[in-house]
Design a protein that fits this description.
With 333 residues, this protein is α+β, with helices and mostly antiparallel strands. It contains twelve helices and four strands; from the N terminus they run H-H-H-H-H-H-E-E-E-H-H-H-H-H-E-H.
Length: 333
């Protein structure tokens, strides 16, 4: 049997993310991580995962180690073969699903329709908590800009040449899942409601965190407090609903609005900070069906430099797939 070239790409991406995480946790430099040390770490990590996740991690690691085995010298192959044996011999006890960490994505509402957002805003307008007004501002700004919650700590709004430019430090640039270190969202109307919402939220966030030079720990603690407040409101308002709104729902809503507006995949990737133009299309919310309605916003424009980076990544990925197709008869292990 053979693997599809796209599967090889996914295996390579997953393996590199695991390697980066292992190095970070073990504090090991790039050239000093031996295959057996990585597999030992991975086996320990997989013990707390669900069976499906273990299967994915094991398959990706096996594929990449076999590739290393083909390319290495005799000494390197011996180390890789030892790691492969360790990976194959690893056994995990049967775990009660209820005892495992919950699959949190199954409990998150991926988009905020106008009905849900209106009900939340009605509760927040009563201002029963010091977090209610900032949370209302966060939801409005988050839908307008589509940022990850933590990205607001490293964001600034600049008025330049009659345009509003939101400069965002991409959260996942360190593991090559972003198109670059920064992205820029551009609005032509500096007095529009989207820019006003972002300006008000940033002012409230900076004030809560004692100025524009945000303490990272306190900034995240403040966002967690907003998240907890949103969770309490949502559980009280919709006690029987499995999927509840989260801070991340604002980002998913932005993606759904962009898809509904017909924005190209490359432009959406540039606006959301993704390296691949397929990420938002695959993993983010789609426009609702039926009578459900999304909020109305004026979408920002992506910076041409960000568009160029996404196109470059897409071209490199296409070239990689073509090279894999030349060796299509790769055995599946």
């Amino acid at each position: 049997m053979t693997r599809k070239p796209a599967t090889d790409v996914q295996y390579a991406k997953r393996y590199q993310r695991l390697i980066a995480r292992c190095r970070k946790e073990l504090r090991i430099d790039d050239g000093d991580l031996l295959p057996i040390a990585f597999v030992d770490w991975l086996v320990g990590h997989m013990a707390s995962l669900r069976q499906a996740s273990r299967r994915q991690y094991r398959a990706a690691t096996r594929a990449e180690l076999l590739l290393l085995n083909e390319q290495g010298n005799e000494v390197a192959r011996a180390g890789v073969e030892q790691a492969l044996r360790r990976l194959e011999e690893a056994e995990f006890p049967t775990r009660d699903v209820a005892a495992l960490a919950p699959a949190t994505s199954s409990h998150k509402l991926k988009r905020l329709t106008t009905d849900v957002l209106s009900r939340l805003q009605d509760v927040l307008a009563k201002d029963r908590s010091p977090y209610d007004k900032p949370l209302a501002l966060y939801l409005e700004a988050g839908i307008a800009a589509g940022l990850r919650p933590g990205e607001w700590r490293n964001t600034r709004l600049v008025i330049s040449q009659g345009r509003a430019v939101l400069v965002v430090r991409n959260a996942k640039d360190d593991d090559a899942r972003a198109h670059g270190p920064y992205r820029r969202l551009i609005w032509e109307d500096i007095n529009g409601p989207e820019v006003a919402a972002i300006r008000q939220w940033l002012a409230a966030f900076h004030a809560a965190c004692n100025g524009s030079r945000l303490d990272p720990d306190y900034g995240m603690a403040y966002l967690r407090a907003l998240s907890d407040r949103l969770a309490r409101i949502s559980r009280k308002r919709w006690p029987r609903r499995l999927r509840q709104p989260t801070l991340y729902s604002a980002r998913h809503t932005f993606a759904a609005i962009a898809k509904q507006a017909g924005l190209s995949r490359v432009a959406l990737a540039a606006l959301m900070g993704h390296a691949l133009d397929s990420t938002a299309a695959t993993h983010y919310s789609r426009p609702p069906k039926g009578s459900l309605v999304l909020p109305e916003i004026v979408l920002p424009q992506p910076d041409p430099r960000d568009l160029a980076r996404v196109r470059l990544v897409a071209a490199e990925r296409s070239q990689f797939l073509r090279s894999r197709e030349r060796n299509a008869n790769v055995p599946r292990f």
